[in-house]
């Protein structure tokens, strides 16, 4: 990935500084939005976004990155809206609406950027490789590994994005199950279900929960009331699959991996950064991204320290002909290393991040046109909130849950906290119903080379669906006070 040109920094800074004032300046004077649901611009925007999303879903077939059609679709939608509003002399209203969507995306982008930068730093320092090796060295049987990998990824995914957590456990499953395709298939299904369930009871676990937290629909601590329902969602299909897991014990090859110098301290700094994000939101009432950006500065200062001290430590170790004095610095890694934070930022999953820009601004445009109000009136006006949220959750097996959650938030339905918890739960775990319903499932499909497949996952869909409804039932029991 090419680095951003330095000359782009000043225009970007000007944009970010100008956005808040523009939003505040027009908020009080903006007229009522025009109803364009039966206007050519509305029909055009609807066709464009449906086409863009269809093209994004066919990424595996066309090999066209999903961000490309979504970016173009979002641009066309807002161009059409702005043209109509300009004809009515209300272009400022369209600008204010677009700015509001852009600010919401920037908050999300900054939060994810910091989180993924820390994860990339930990990956470079061998943290995930060391965890994988530790699990392999336990030399457990297939049944025990089935439960260990599922349980670990359930908790890891509450603080690490689902794609990373799923791939980490997927590597372990493939490493220990290379001689047992049946184990790999069952364990991967278990990992997908556990990852999606674990990411649903924490605001840090996924895009949909992060959306709800940043919009202020739920407090940070309220998400953890979903722990028991999410645990049930994981355990019901796991218990059913347990009896199909082979009884054998895998044979694994010996391997040596050690974490690099500073790895443990980066893990600690990541915990501090998460704490700053929570403190910013709950005590200072600032967006969580403010705390995350403060945490990014801590990582930058720490990598500066590592870079300045590594040569001195390496020299001392060579002169004394001893192993490096730091316990987390392995033998053989004394050569000069670069600790470039911006290189780690460049390795983010930009295709996904740009896809969400297109999805958020495009859906925001449809909402500004008036379509989301119409859908909300039908979905939440003619059906109970519970049925609506259950159906939305089931649809996340086909449509990305982050996109669906943003659509629900854009509808602005009047829901009690219990229903916001319910839609968070259903959208989080609904993607487990199909292998293509979530990022971990899609990633494992590509990594396992056929041992885990769409059809093998579909075979266990009934018990996963049972876990879906069991989790909903448990939620109504343990969180009845929120309804």
TrEMBL record:
<feature type="transmembrane region" description="Helical">
    <location>
        <begin position="386"/>
        <end position="408"/>
    </location>
</feature>
<feature type="transmembrane region" description="Helical">
    <location>
        <begin position="183"/>
        <end position="203"/>
    </location>
</feature>
<keyword id="KW-0732">Signal</keyword>
<feature type="transmembrane region" description="Helical">
    <location>
        <begin position="289"/>
        <end position="306"/>
    </location>
</feature>
<protein>
    <submittedName>
        <fullName>Putative transporter</fullName>
    </submittedName>
</protein>
<dbReference type="GO" id="GO:0006814">
    <property type="term" value="P:sodium ion transport"/>
</dbReference>
<keyword id="KW-0050">Antiport</keyword>
<feature type="transmembrane region" description="Helical">
    <location>
        <begin position="457"/>
        <end position="478"/>
    </location>
</feature>
<feature type="transmembrane region" description="Helical">
    <location>
        <begin position="354"/>
        <end position="380"/>
    </location>
</feature>
<keyword id="KW-0739">Sodium transport</keyword>
<dbReference type="GO" id="GO:0016020">
    <property type="term" value="C:membrane"/>
</dbReference>
<comment type="similarity">
    <text>Belongs to the NhaD Na(+)/H(+) (TC 2.A.62) antiporter family.</text>
</comment>
<keyword id="KW-0406">Ion transport</keyword>
<keyword id="KW-0472">Membrane</keyword>
<feature type="transmembrane region" description="Helical">
    <location>
        <begin position="70"/>
        <end position="85"/>
    </location>
</feature>
<keyword id="KW-0915">Sodium</keyword>
<dbReference type="GO" id="GO:0015297">
    <property type="term" value="F:antiporter activity"/>
</dbReference>
<feature type="transmembrane region" description="Helical">
    <location>
        <begin position="91"/>
        <end position="114"/>
    </location>
</feature>
<feature type="transmembrane region" description="Helical">
    <location>
        <begin position="152"/>
        <end position="176"/>
    </location>
</feature>
<keyword id="KW-0812">Transmembrane</keyword>
<feature type="transmembrane region" description="Helical">
    <location>
        <begin position="420"/>
        <end position="445"/>
    </location>
</feature>
<feature type="domain" description="Citrate transporter-like">
    <location>
        <begin position="55"/>
        <end position="428"/>
    </location>
</feature>
<feature type="signal peptide">
    <location>
        <begin position="1"/>
        <end position="22"/>
    </location>
</feature>
<feature type="transmembrane region" description="Helical">
    <location>
        <begin position="41"/>
        <end position="58"/>
    </location>
</feature>
<dbReference type="InterPro" id="IPR045016">
    <property type="entry name" value="NhaD-like"/>
</dbReference>
<keyword id="KW-0813">Transport</keyword>
<keyword id="KW-1133">Transmembrane helix</keyword>
<feature type="transmembrane region" description="Helical">
    <location>
        <begin position="223"/>
        <end position="245"/>
    </location>
</feature>
<feature type="transmembrane region" description="Helical">
    <location>
        <begin position="266"/>
        <end position="283"/>
    </location>
</feature>
<dbReference type="Pfam" id="PF03600">
    <property type="entry name" value="CitMHS"/>
</dbReference>
<dbReference type="InterPro" id="IPR004680">
    <property type="entry name" value="Cit_transptr-like_dom"/>
</dbReference>
């Amino acid at each position: 990935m090419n680095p951003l040109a330095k000359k782009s920094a000043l225009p970007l800074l000007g944009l970010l500084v100008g956005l808040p004032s523009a939003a505040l300046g027009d908020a009080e004077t903006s007229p009522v939005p025009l109803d364009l649901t039966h206007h050519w611009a509305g029909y055009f925007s609807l066709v464009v976004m449906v086409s863009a999303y269809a093209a994004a879903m066919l990424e595996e077939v066309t090999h066209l990155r999903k961000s490309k059609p979504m970016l173009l679709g979002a641009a066309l939608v807002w161009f059409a809206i702005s043209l109509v509003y300009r004809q009515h002399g209300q272009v400022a209203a369209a600008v204010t609406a677009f700015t509001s969507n852009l600010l919401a995306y920037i908050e999300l982008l900054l939060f994810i950027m910091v989180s993924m930068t820390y994860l990339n730093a930990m990956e470079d320092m061998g943290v995930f490789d060391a965890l994988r090796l530790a699990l392999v060295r336990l030399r457990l049987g297939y049944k025990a590994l089935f439960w260990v990998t599922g349980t670990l990824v359930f908790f890891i995914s509450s603080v690490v994005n689902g794609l990373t957590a799923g791939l980490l456990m997927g590597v372990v499953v493939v490493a220990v199950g290379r001689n047992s395709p049946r184990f790999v298939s069952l364990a991967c299904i278990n990992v997908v279900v556990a990852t999606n369930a674990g990411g649903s009871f924490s605001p840090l676990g996924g895009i949909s929960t992060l959306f709800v937290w940043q919009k202020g629909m739920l407090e940070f601590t309220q998400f953890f009331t979903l722990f028991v329902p999410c645990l049930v969602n994981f355990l019901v299909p796991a218990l059913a699959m347990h009896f199909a897991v082979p009884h054998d014990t895998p044979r694994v090859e010996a391997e040596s991996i050690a974490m690099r110098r500073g790895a443990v301290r980066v893990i600690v700094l990541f915990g501090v950064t998460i704490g700053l994000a929570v403190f910013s939101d709950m005590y200072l009432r600032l967006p969580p991204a403010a705390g995350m950006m403060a945490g990014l500065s801590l990582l930058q200062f720490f990598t500066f320290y590592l870079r300045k001290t590594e040569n001195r430590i390496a020299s001392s170790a060579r002169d004394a002909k001893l192993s490096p004095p730091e316990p987390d610095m392995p033998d053989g890694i004394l050569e000069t290393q670069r600790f470039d934070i911006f290189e780690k930022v460049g390795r983010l999953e930009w295709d996904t991040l740009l896809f969400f820009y297109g999805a958020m601004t495009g859906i925001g445009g449809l909402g500004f046109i008036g379509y989301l109000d119409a859908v909300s009136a039908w979905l939440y006006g003619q059906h109970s909130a519970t049925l609506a949220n259950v159906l939305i959750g089931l649809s996340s097996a086909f449509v990305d849950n982050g996109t669906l959650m943003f659509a629900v938030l854009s509808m602005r339905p009047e829901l009690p906290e219990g229903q916001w918890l319910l839609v968070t739960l259903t959208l989080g775990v609904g993607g487990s119903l199909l292998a293509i319903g979530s990022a971990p499932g899609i990633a494992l499909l590509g990594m396992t080379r056929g041992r885990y497949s769409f059809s093998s996952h579909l075979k266990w869909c009934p018990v996963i669906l049972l876990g879906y409804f069991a989790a909903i039932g448990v939620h109504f029991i343990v969180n009845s006070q929120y309804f």
